[in-house]
Specification:
Blueprint (H helix, E strand, L loop, with lengths): L3 H10 L2 E9 L5 E6 L8 E2 L2 E3 L6 H13 L10 E10 L11 E11 L12 E7 L1 H6 L5 H4 L4
Parallel strand pairs: 1-6
Antiparallel strand pairs: 1-4, 2-3, 2-7, 5-6
Protein name: Colanic acid biosynthesis protein WcaH
InterPro entries: GDPMH (IPR033715), NUDIX_hydrolase-like_dom_sf (IPR015797), NUDIX_hydrolase_dom (IPR000086)
Pfam families: NUDIX (PF00293)
């Protein structure tokens, strides 16, 4: 396990690899959460998280789905791969000046047959279900989330 100082060096020197979950319901609405953590704190964003060292993609997907959505044992094979995206942020998890954050993001779409109660309030302060057009029209939805619907 990295110390906070070591992880800050990683963020300063390398891109991070992450998985974002584009969760939609039967009505075509997308789940977004109001971020508690840096980077992108205070904006609406799709759920997601970084892949840990030596973690397989399948294990990372299941862990992130549980941590972000509260859905245990969800497998990557149930999702649709949407592509690779890059996210750049001027800030970082520690609010350290002059240290940007760069993510390489593997985006996966999940389609639920109904609107389900998902989310963990330790990761996001609130959740919303919005249509892609509603999401694109809002100034408080992060541009990196909007990129999935353009």
């Amino acid at each position: 396990m990295l110390t906070e100082i070591d992880f800050l060096d990683v963020v300063r020197l390398t891109p991070l690899v992450a998985i974002d979950l584009i969760v939609s319901d039967a009505e075509g609405r997308v789940l977004i959460g109001h971020r508690r953590n840096r980077p992108a704190r205070g904006t609406w964003f799709v759920p997601g998280g970084r892949i840990l060292k030596d973690e397989t993609l399948d294990r990372a997907f299941t862990r992130i789905a549980d941590a972000e959505l509260g859905i245990g044992r969800l497998t990557r094979s149930t999702a649709r791969f949407e592509g690779v995206f890059e996210h750049h942020y001027k800030d970082n998890f520690a609010a350290e000046p002059d240290v940007s954050t760069h993510y390489i993001v593997l985006a996966y779409g999940l389609q639920f047959t109904s609107t389900i109660s998902v989310g963990r309030l330790d990761q996001h302060s609130d959740y919303l279900w919005l249509t892609p057009s509603e999401l694109l029209a809002r100034a408080d939805v992060h541009e990196n989330t909007k990129a999935y619907f353009r």
